[in-house]
Amino acid sequence: MSDYVNVSARTLVEYVYLNGSIESGFRKATALQEGTKAHQKVQKQYQDGDGREVALKTELLYEGVLFKLEGRADGILFREGDIPTIDEIKSTSGDLSYIEDKTYPVHWAQAQCYAYMYAAKEELSQMRIQLTYYQVQTEEIKRFERVYSLETLTEFVWEMIRGYAPWAFALLRHKRERDHSIKGLRFPYDLYRSGQRALAGTVYKTHLDSKRLFAGAPTGMGKTMSTLFPTIKAIGEGVLRRLFYLTAKTLTRTAAEEAISLMEQKGLHLWSVTLSAKDKICFQDKVDCRKESCEFAAGHYDRCNSALLDLLTNETRMTRNVIEVYARKHQVCPFEFALDAAYAADTVICDYNYIFDPRVSLKRLWEEEKRHTALLIDEAHNLVDRAREMYSAELDKAAFLALQRSYKGKNKRLYAAAHAINKFLISVKKECAATNSPAVDQADGGSSEKNRNGEIAKNIGYVTRRTDSHVKRELSQELVDLLSAFLVEAERELASGSAGSEGIEAIDQLLDVYFAARHFVRIADEYDERYVTITELVKGELHVKLFCLDPSRMLQKAGKGFRSTVFFSATLAPLSYFRDLLGGDAEDYAVSFPSPFYKEQLNVFISPLSTRYRDREHTKERIAAQLADLTQQHSGNYLVFFPSY
Which of 4-18, 27-41, 425-439, 509-523 has the least mean pLDDT? Predict the structure, then answer.
């Protein structure tokens, strides 16, 4: 049987037609939702007998590899006495007057693939293609038509296959090498530590059964290898296609890299990518993704495909340093380059936020891919507080006042929207200033979940330690409505392109406020008994925060669709408490292991010397002498802990 490659028409043409520069401009958050509505509105105009969302597929053999091409045409229109028409619908928030017949070649290319698949199946000599552009605000429609012969369509599709083939062949070669290497891979240490084999077996079963696992495993047990090794084995068995190793700290990322490196020394062939934050990996002193300001952003997509082929042909462990070397070599943005490599990788090592933060998460990780992806979440106890911040949102009054001043006399509607929010926040500021000490409006009795959150709210000191603050259970719907109205005007201004006339600083100012407001409204949609509203005065400036007390529901939503998830930590106790807060339920697997060290290895010595600040001058010499004696008598590694003061 020939090797085969599954590829969608959209993936095929977007790869071959990839070009241009990174654009740091505005994109509407509702683009996908509005795109769906646009399709539905256009399709309602179809006649009886016209096809809607028509699935198409074909197979093409090229250099011994079978390419299984598939796609879904938005519409196929049939008119008496005429050839069938492929209708490709595209929504836009921009001005239709700027869209011409040749503006988007990739749209024609996608439709040509659909036309070829249909014409070849139905043995038609000609097909018409219609591009339908739908303006989401005005509902205006603009159409372009072309007629293609089957011969022309056939030649075009083969051209696309030839352009995509080097990438497809690289993926096939890698998969063969990877699976062969995993099949022969053995545990990289001579002996398992206590509990290590049991944990590895439980992790593997978790992947097989498509479950969540909560594992409490003590320091020194070897958790990193115990979770990575069985997960990589599952990839080789075809149970999984990819794993994400999620961490909160750079140190644990390094541990995962070292574990994979050790397995490579034992014969493993695996594509592993480590993702770094944009501000850390950016080559510029200040992140500025405009092509006019960054040579790596300008023409990035012209060079990206060849850069990826070079990287994946010559490297397997793609750490930050490796990414930077190839990014400089091919003059591409290191951050976007790493993301593109991650979508091809077998293993992605990254921060929690790439999966769980709605502002950062990997949007191109489609549901189909998620079903074959496992999450390994290291130091999972840290995810609780991180998630509380991810699913919280904050507004600053000063930002709206500054925006109001910037657009006075320039954009009446945007000015009015910013002014209305600023006016509302002035009233909140007065109310907050009148409260001299923190106050918490408690929820009345009710469920255990409400009671638990009430207890957290009572101890809200870890959230806010400022004097002029107030904590409420209720969400201000008036503020949310004002922000929603502001978003409409901000989107209109940003989409029009006229914001550019105000200068880069004005655009950045509007974008910052827009994204903060958008996130606030998004979080407001999730607001329930798991949230409180905190208003604070800091040096006279008002801050309003929707704070997530209990992130369990949001974490559960973000993790939905993945094949399996393993939460593990040395401090995941009590296990039931962390299972609840991390979005688990009674059906999940749970396991905990005792320390691998013997109790005889623990000794307690008491030296009655004070380390208080006032005593330090008198005791530091004796403490140092005792430590010196200890380290000389017993060789090994030492950690010495002192009180923070």
Answer: 27-41
Instruction: Tell me what the mean pLDDT of segment 326-347 comes to.
Output: 96
Radius of gyration of the chain (CA): 29
Give a yes or no: residue 275 inside a domain. no
* Secondary structure (3-state) at 416: helix
Q: Indicate whether 410 pLDDT > 90.
A: no
Cis peptide before 574 (omega within 30 of 0): yes
Q: How confident is the model at residue 13 (pLDDT cuts 50, 70, 90)?
A: very high
Total count of domains within the chain? 5
Are 263 and 232 within 8 A, CB to CB? yes
Please enumerate in sequence order all residues whose Cβ is within 8 A of that of 253, keeping only pairs 6 or more positions apart, or say none. 245, 247, 274, 349, 350
Q: Which domain range does residue 305 map to?
A: 281-334
The amino acid sitting at 465 is R
CB atoms within 10 A of CB 71: 21
567, 223 in Cβ contact below 8 A?
Answer: no
Q: Give the model confidence (pLDDT) of 147-203 as tens digits.
A: 999 999 999 999 999 999 999 999 999 999 999 999 999 999 999 988 999 999 999
Question: Parallel, antiparallel, or unpaired for β 373-377 and 242-247?
Answer: parallel
Q: Is residue 175 part of a domain?
A: no
Q: Are residues 426 and 300 in the same domain?
A: no
Same domain, 426 and 400: yes
Q: How far apart are CA 347 and CA 353, in angstroms?
A: 16
Question: Which domain CATH number covers 403?
Answer: 1.10.275.40
Structure tokens at 488: 């409409």
Same domain, yes or no, for 329 and 250?
Answer: no
Q: Give dist(CA 52, CA 75) in Å, integer.
A: 5
Exposed, middle or buried, 444 (CB in 10 Å: 0-12/13-18/19+)?
A: exposed
Local structure of 401: helix, strand or coil: helix
Q: What separation in angstroms does the CA of 318 have from each of 120, 264, 314, 322?
A: 42, 13, 10, 5
Going through 343-421 in order, the beta strands assigned E by DSSP cover 347-351, 373-377, 393-396
Q: Which one-letter amino acid corresponds to residue 629?
A: D
What burial letters (b/e) apply to 596-635, b meaning 16+ CB within 10 Å?
beeeeeeeeeeeeeeeeeeeeeeeeeebeeeeeeeeeeee
Strand partners, 568: 215
E strands in 228-346: 242-247, 272-274, 317-318
Q: Is residue 302 part of a domain?
A: yes
Clarify whether residues 406 and 472 are in a common domain. Answer: yes
pLDDT for 447 equals 45
Q: Are residues 193 and 106 in the same domain?
A: no
CATH of the domain at 224: 3.40.50.300
CB of 127 within 8 A of CB of 150?
yes
β-bridge pairing 85-92 and 126-135: parallel
Q: How confident is the model at residue 641 (pLDDT cuts 50, 70, 90)?
A: confident
User: Can you give the pTM of this predicted structure?
Assistant: 0.86
- pLDDT of res. 92: 86
**546 plus 561 within the same structural domain:** no
Amino acid at 145: E
Please tell me the predicted confidence (pLDDT) of residue 441: 47
535 and 561 share a domain? no
Token pair, residue 94, equals 């921009």
User: Do residues 296 and 243 share a domain?
Assistant: no
Cβ-based neighbour number of residue 249 at 10 Å: 12
